[in-house]
Amino acid sequence: MGKHLGTLIWAVLLSMLAANPLWAAEEDEEPAPFVTPELVVPEPASAVMGWVDSREPQSLNGSWKLLVDPMQVGTPGGFFGGWATTRTPVDAFQLLEYSYPDAADIRVPGDFNTQRQELFFYRDTVWYQRNFNVEAEADTRYHLWFGGANFDATVFLNGAPVARHKGGYVPFSVDVTAHLQPEGNDLVIRINNRLGDDTVPTGRTDWWPYGGLTRDVMLVATPEQYIVNAKVVLNNDRNAITAEVATEGFAAGDEVTVVIPQLDISQTARISDNGDAQLSIPAQPELWHPDAPKLYRVELAAGDDRVSDQIGFRTIETSGTTIMLNGEPIKFKGISTHEEPIGRDGVAYSEADMRVLFNEAKNLGVNFVRAAHYPYSRHAARVADEMGILLWEEVPIYWNIAWENADTLAIARDQISRLIERDWNRASVVIWSVANETPYSESRMKFLGRLIDDVRELDDSRLVSAALLGDTRRELKHVAAHLAAHGQGSDIASDEEKAIFQGVLAAAGEAAPEPGSSFTLVIDDPLGELVDIVSYNEYFGWYYARALAPQMGVSEQTIRKLMLQFIPQVTMSTAFGKPMFISEFGAGAKAGKRGEGVWTEDYQAAVYRAQIAMLSHSPQVQGMTPWILKDFRAMLRSLPGIQDYRNRKGLIDQNGRRKQAFYVLRDFYNGPWADTH
Ligand code: GCB
Predict the structure, then answer these.
(1) How far is the CA of 609 from the centre of ligand 1 (A)?
(2) For residues 630 and 342, is the Cβ–Cβ distance under 8 A?
(3) Residues 167, 91: contact at Cβ < 8 Å?
(4) For the CA of 398, the nearest atom of ligand 1
(5) Is the CB of 374 under 6 A from ligand 1?
(6) Helix-then-strand count for the chain, H and E
(7) ∠ CA(223), CA(233), CA(214), 5° rounding?
(8) Among 196, 290, 423, 602, which is most buried by a count of CB atoms within 10 Å?
(9) Is the CB of 625 inside a 6 Å radius of any atom of ligand 1?
């Protein structure tokens, strides 16, 4: 082909592409060859559509088709044509370079990383496709509802890009009535699970960034005028149930009715200009409690629309350093989890998965679970409601986030508001946590301050927290001095090491601690001012020894052994006069490995014993969620033969095998802390 002909073909091709308004470039700009322009895609509905399970939705779970697209050629608008619709060649002459009918199968819900071996470490674009039929009825609206798609999903229905959601983990929906056809609807989702500096979470996390349609997908039918969502909670005085109902399509003055048959409640309110209705209904329900998780059937009606749910009523508040459930002091006997099932790799997506996981948590004697580090599927809080487990729910603002980036803040705000709007009727959820181990800075305070304001505005019937990091450098300096004082008189250290300890104490001068003296660690991160419960992650007995040994010039073995003796002399506290909560402590162990040293069950159990001794004499500490119930997948953790890409701090391994530390914690919750609920 001559040079001129080649240029001409390009010019024609590019002008055809530019003529399509979906991917039109700026008017005077010539699209660059081989570059795929950004699509213009609407946002999903801004509010979460709640109460969906009572609408008998059409499930779109099941077997879908999957294409893997690391080169981004599936996006429509470029030279390669795009994969937004299902096409098959009309005859032997048509060039198509993709095919959904011939593509691999993938199960929805579920992550793609663990369904296909070659995608285990994959962090990029894939395409999901399926067909569905719908017997569309008159005067009905149809909404595509996604429980969560990790982490950036664009939805195409019959070729039209109908919604894009960034962030993953939380539900979104879009009204697709205008795009539906009775048969053979072609639903295609482009999903990318790559994370970077500006995303939430960022690119580096200590959990697997599972990608794909990890949650339920469904088609929800509503009347033209319908209830979008409603928050139904007990007021703080425990004498009235309040309902805030959001509707769509009704006229001001139309009515909403709330019925709670078991309480003989049936009350009506009028919808205001903005579509909302508010009710406050005098009531004294039996209160939801982990020991007796009472749920009531609540029904809402407006026009032709009807929805219902099972809801528990309780209050949660703090009084000084005490946490009060239904006006009574309570300690949170907890454990942390990730959203992974026992006995299978990948994301836990079903109610059954959550039941098994939470049941093993209950076997420890817990009344509380920290659902770290991101929103789980909606099944989690439902199961917790039924099983009587208090729940901490969290958004993945983890380590270093782009605090100054407006788009990052927008994703974070979207994520927390969608989580709250989904779970605000779950009595089990008592804490919204906005962050985990975020280093101090002014911009971090502003970012998290904004989120905390959002949370309080959306839902003031729960407590706000964040897992804090503390001032590790300062703390380690104090700990080093105490270890030196302690080590001098012990037979753990060698003579050479004792000389080093003497040097450390001499340098500390008057501040040098006496052997055996206690040490109070005070958390004063200014974020403590903004939260209701001051939560703290600490790794005495695990990371701290590794950090101190080279700094002090003493063997890690000596430091670890001294540390186990020293931990019980530490008292945890905060500068805020609020309840303190230990949101993490732990140590790694490979199930079945016994003996001395790190990675053994024995060492992990020794760390738990020392930690429990410390925490049970720290009066401000009102609960704990040690890290973690089960070994979990983590790309950070490669050590062959021990980790093999799993974080080994679980009390059980991935198949449910219990380690010694499981029993240490169980004995504590069933013994000294048995009567603290
Ligand atoms: C932490 C993090 C958690 C990690 C854990 C660990 O502090 O919050 O995500 O998995 O430590 O095992 O290091």
Answers:
(1) 20
(2) yes
(3) no
(4) 8
(5) no
(6) 11, 32
(7) 60
(8) 423
(9) no
Q: What is the pLDDT of residue 471?
A: 83
Please spell the DSSP secondary structure of 580-606, one letter per residue: EEEEE----B-TT--SSSTBSHHHHHH
> For 446-502, how does the pLDDT look when each residue is reduced to its tens digit (9 = 90+)?
999 999 999 999 999 999 999 998 888 888 888 999 999 999 888 999 999 999 999
Please give the Cα distance from 64 to 69 (Å, whole number).
16
In sequence order, the 6+-apart residues with CB closer than 8 A to the CB of 663 are: 605
Q: What are phi and psi of 489, to 5 degrees?
A: -95, 0
Q: Scanning the structure block, which residue is given the tokens 């280093």?
A: 439
**CB of 340 closer than 6 angstroms to any ligand 1 atom:** no
Distance spanning both ends of the chain, measured CA to CA: 81
pLDDT value for 34: 80
Pocket test for ligand 1, best of 202, 204, 206, 638 (most atoms within 8 A of CB): 206
Which of the 8 DSSP states describes residue 517?
-
CA of 650 to the centre of ligand 1 (A): 11
Low-confidence ranges of the chain (pLDDT < 50): 1-26
Identify the CA nearest to 133 among candidates 176, 84, 181: 181
Please work out, in degrees rounded to the nearest 5, the angle formed at the alpha carbon of residue 653 by the alpha carbons of 651 and 658. Answer: 55
Per-residue tokens: 628: 């973690």
Q: Is 631 in the pocket of ligand 1 (CB under 6 A)?
A: no
Q: How far is the CA of 205 from the centre of ligand 1 (A)?
A: 9
Rounded Cα–Cα distance for residues 126 and 68 (Å)? 4
Scored b (16 or more CB within 10 A) or e, 293-329 reads bbbbebbbbbbebbbebbbbbbbbbeeebebebeeee
Best residue for ligand 1 mutational test, from 584, 630, 638, 647 (most atoms within 8 Å of Cβ): 584
Please check whether residue 388 is in contact with residue 289, taking contact to mean a CB–CB distance below 8 angstroms: yes
Q: Which two tokens stand for residue 636?
A: 């950070």
| Residue 363, CA atoms < 13 Å, CB-side half-sphere | 13
Considering only CA atoms, give the Rg of the chain: 28
Decide if 336 contacts 584 (C-beta within 8 A): yes
State the Cα–Cα distance between residues 51 and 54, nearest whole angstrom: 6
Q: Where are the beta strands (DSSP E) in 100-239?
A: 104-108, 125-132, 140-146, 152-157, 160-166, 172-175, 185-192, 217-223, 226-234
